[in-house]
Design a protein that fits this description.
This protein is an alpha/beta fold and 383 residues long. It is built from twelve helices and 18 strands. The protein has one domain: FAD/NAD(P)-binding domain (3-Layer(bba) Sandwich), CATH 3.50.50.60. The structure holds flavin-adenine dinucleotide (FAD).
């Protein structure tokens, strides 16, 4: 028997789960197909900027979310060569640092196991008249008016329905970890990012007890180490940031993950008939602006707006892309160009970069931040 839905979402990450909320809120029957066996407790921290929080407010999850994370008051950008380059005061806006698993658990909480299905393998997908049919590996067949690929950087939906994209390895890999380190930072509401030669370290509390940190470094792609060797390597890199070495020292091996940093070369192929891509599947970005999850949340919101207006028709998907493309691809480009600045090794180039960042006109910085912080989801002004 074929199971009928309005919309099938492939991928139960932040994008797919939040999209399920937005679409259910406007009255559609959705099903989320997730490959992994359950919600993962592993993962690192996320910084949720005002646009991400606005999306979560829209689906009424913000009051429950805020106590799970940690409000940041300030983020300092520092160069090991030149000292403080900028201090971003956040007292007039809310930025929340949180463990990714906390956000995912909250997004999954009210969906129920009929809607959110774990351990799903997709055998085939194809458009058939005014529906899309999905056959699962266990023989179950589902059919829906629309199919949305929220299945991340290496999306199966994208591979099946869209022209090939270029995955770009940034030349840097990362370690991320969560340290049990209450009291280590003098002001736990202040986070920071420090640029060293060929590497960068960032940190923020995600609750009163734990500090999320990341360390990026130049490396060939797919370099892997055992957890023990990874921690030793991370501690070696921390020689550039001795003040913060204790954070990495206090991190259990099991709470350190290595991820190569890649994005998708900007593409405008997000919609094909009754199939659309969202989040990392459409526009994966390097994490330099801390905006990947936020952009997935904006996509989910825009899909809710478009489907409410146009119903379960391809024009709704086109309207979603029209609303989102400009900002999402701008983020990808900005973040990619930012990448090359953080790891400069030559001292004179570091000095030049530091002077440029330090003396960047405030109006340029403010305009960039204002664009990042304001959701672009296809709502007309005042709606
Ligand atoms: C080092 C690093 C730091 C980051 N820091 C931040 C930050 O501070 N702030 C921020 O906003 N963003 C940050 N991001 C980005 C953010 O993590 C991603 O952009 C965000 O998770 C994208 O969500 P998504 O749902 O589109 O994709 P994903 O999170 O990748 O979720 C995709 C889901 O689809 C599932 N899936 C994949 N294939 C299939 C399939 N064939 N069938 C079924 N299910 C499938 C996967 O299991 C997964 O659950 C960071 C990323 C990195 C790498």
């Amino acid at each position: 028997m074929v199971q009928e839905w309005d919309v099938i979402l492939v991928g139960g990450g932040i994008g797919g789960l939040s999209c399920a909320h937005f679409l259910r809120q406007v009255g559609f029957r959705v099903c989320v197909l997730e490959r992994s066996a359950g919600l993962s407790e592993v993962g690192a921290g996320l910084q949720l900027a005002p646009n991400a929080l606005a999306a979560l407010r829209e689906i009424h999850l913000l009051p429950d979310l805020l106590p799970l994370g940690w409000i940041m008051h300030r983020v300092d950008l520092v160069s090991t060569r030149s000292g403080v380059l900028s201090s971003m005061n956040m007292k007039d806006k809310t930025v929340l640092a949180i463990h990714r698993a906390e956000l995912q658990k909250l997004l999954a909480r009210d969906l129920g196991l009929e809607v959110l299905r774990f351990g799903v393998g997709i055998e085939s997908m194809h458009e058939e008249g005014d529906r899309v049919r999905v056959m699962l590996r266990d023989g179950v067949i589902l059919s829906a008016r629309l199919l949305i690929g929220a299945d991340g950087l290496r999306s199966q939906v994208r591979t099946q329905f869209f022209p090939p994209v270029t995955l770009r390895y940034s030349g840097t890999s990362s370690y991320r970890g969560i340290a049990a380190a209450p009291g280590l930072l003098s002001d736990p509401h202040v986070g920071g990012e420090i640029w060293g030669p060929g590497c960068r370290f960032g940190y923020a509390h995600i609750n009163s007890h734990d500090i999320y940190w990341y360390l990026t470094f130049d490396a060939p792609p797919h370099e892997t180490r055992t957890p023990e060797a990874g921690k030793v390597h991370a501690l070696q890199l921390m020689a550039a940031f001795p003040e913060y070495k204790a954070i990495v020292e206090r991190t259990d091996l099991a709470r350190i993950i290595q991820t190569d940093i890649s994005d998708i070369q900007p593409t405008t192929h997000w919609v094909q008939g009754r199939v659309a891509l969202m989040g990392d599947a459409a526009h994966a970005t390097t994490p330099n602006l801390g905006q990947g999850a936020a952009q997935a949340l904006e996509d989910a919101w825009a899909l809710g707006v478009a489907l409410k207006k146009f119903g379960l028709e391809p024009i709704a998907l086109q309207s979603y892309q029209a609303a989102r493309q400009s900002k999402a691809l701008w983020i990808v480009r900005q973040s990619w160009s930012f990448q090359s600045m953080c790891h400069i090794k030559r001292p004179w180039l570091q000095t030049l970069r530091d002077l440029t960042v330090k003396h960047m006109p405030a109006r340029i910085q403010q305009a960039t931040l204002a664009r990042i912080d304001k959701p672009e989801v296809g709502l007309s002004e005042g709606s």
